[in-house]
Write a structure and sequence with these properties.
This protein is mainly α. It has one domain. Helix content is 87%, strand content 0%. The protein has three helices and no strands. The longest helix has 66 residues. It is rod-shaped, with a radius of gyration of 29 Å. The two termini are 27 Å apart. 2% of the residues are buried.
């Protein structure tokens, strides 16, 4: 939003400079000074916002590898349990895999969905976006 305001402020500054040439410095000089000051302030604010976003993204990138182990630690046990239950019941293997209590089934399904559906789709979407931005 600030960049849009800066664009309009800069445009008004150009218009004011043109009118200033016609009407003289005494009338429009204070208006021109105000517009130039607000343009500089908006520019500084936009630069500070971009620098803060860059720093936040660098922090996210530094922390991301630590979360990979956490994600696998949370996702693999429900995946193994679900797979063992399905294989045992499908092929009548008689493995001693007890089904989860009813209140834990939605939790397991949410974890499995996040691990096997949401995470790969997010990675795919990011790769697609990066490819589109590169082209």
């Amino acid at each position: 939003m600030n960049w849009l305001l800066g664009l309009f402020t800069g445009g008004w500054s150009i218009i004011a400079k043109g009118i200033l040439g016609v009407f003289g410095n005494s009338i429009l000089q204070p208006i021109l000074q105000h517009l130039d000051a607000s343009t500089a302030a908006n520019k500084d604010t936009a630069i500070a916002m971009v620098q803060a976003e860059i720093a936040a993204n660098q922090a996210k990138a530094a922390i991301a590898p630590a979360f990979k182990g956490l994600v696998y630690g949370i996702g693999i046990p429900p995946a193994v349990h679900f797979g063992a239950t399905c294989i045992s019941h499908t092929f009548a293997l008689g493995w001693p895999v007890t089904p989860l209590p009813a209140e834990y089934v939605p939790v397991e399904s949410v974890i499995l969905t996040a691990f096997f559906v949401s995470s790969p789709l997010t990675t795919l979407a990011r790769a697609g976006a990066a490819r589109l931005l590169k082209a």
